[in-house]
Fold this sequence. Notes:
Elements: E1 18-25, E2 38-39, E3 44-48, E4 58-65, E5 79-80
Amino acid sequence: MERSQIELGSVLEEYGEVTAEFYVLNNGLKPVVLKEVATDCGCTTADYTTDTLYQDKIGRVKIAYDPQARVEGSKRKSLSGIT
């Protein structure tokens, strides 16, 4: 994986949705399928490669955070499911 964490800093509601992308490299000998990418609330969504990743192939996980869909207050968002 190119990077395992992306720091977005402060996300202001008036600027709308922000996105980040992660790339996943299958450097193993067996094919890999991303079955699920879980986020921790409804204000964060994930779109990801659903094709089988064969050896040395790269998949993508795009995360979108919509600050207008969040509960009031300061939040720290996280993503899990990429292993």
